[in-house]
Amino acid sequence: MFSFGLLAVILVLHLAAAGLTEARIGLLLTLALLGDAAISLWMATRADRVGRRKMLLVGAVLMCAAGMLFAATRDFWLLLLAATIGVISPSGNEVGPFLPIEQAALAQIVPAARRTQFFAWYQLAGSLSTAAGSLAGGTLTAALQTAGFAELDSYRLVLVGYAAMAAGIACVIRFLSSAVEVQATDARLGPRNLIGLGDSSRTVLRLAGLFSLDAFAGGFVVQSIVAYWFHVRFGVGAATLGAIFFGANLLAAISALSAAWIARRIGLLKTMVFTHMPSNILLMLVPLMPNVELAVAVLLLRFSISQMDVPTRQAYTLAVVTPGERSAAAGATGFARTLGAALSPMISAPLVGIPALAAAPFLISGALKLIYDATLYVSFRHHRPAGEHEVGDST
Known about the structure:
The protein is an all-alpha fold. The protein contains 18 helices and no strands. It has a single domain, classed as MFS general substrate transporter like domains (Growth Hormone, Chain: A), CATH 1.20.1250. The longest helix has 32 residues.
């Protein structure tokens, strides 16, 4: 997550400095997310059978390769190849096979009574790391440019760092315990569909469709696009952008810790919906602010409540499937989210470059997210997962 945060602040700036138009940047970001979605689905739906550690290792290798190719070339078609096949995060959020496989492993080794709490700490660790990466990415590029490096070269050095950290991730994965693998007693036999799901297929696919809508909305305002919007709208530099998103991700990390406490009182579904709706309204207000100070203030306020739905969403999804289906369920919903998010940057990036339409990505995103919240609540308000009263229990 530090690596993804490091990359997100400078990715669109790097592509613009490399000479790509906004339309090509949007296309590249879309295909990067589509490629990550396909790879994540293929790997996650096989991880429970082939081996979770093996699939995580392959993901780290693809991440390293993508970083090196992005740093090495300005050719659009090679960048497109690296974005599609490799693991690149335009949003600063989790991409590739890591999240679904890690969620399945955590759900296996953590008691159900403490699962939401653990997912909240998992989210905290990721958000803090993303925040630190964002700060480091902005600060490092500013320092390199001050030292005399050309703008493009400073971004390339950050990409080399991204690739190096991916190599480090591969080394760490090799030391994971076998406890993360599916145990023989949990490998429930029975008919499975092509994505490794059995009895829970219908529920997971309904959730996947809704999560895809939410992610499609979020794709209009991925972190790299928002950073570019601040750069175009207010002339904010890389160092300041890094500081802004450090603060934003720090607030998001803290907000995730409240999720387990709220879920114990009102349930997982209500926590997902009722904390998400006000954050979407705040998102729509960001481009309406008359100056950079107010825009940043509203953005930070939005981030302070924006991640409460994440650990509850993870816990809810894994509570409705059997242990042997968890990687597949997380992979299917993760694929749906990434697929939805992949389509939006191709639309939003060109809009940011048109002054009269620059606010549109924020407004479209917020409106679609509100529709998602309402539909999710209406569709699942009577669907309480077994043992939900235990999931948020801190005992």
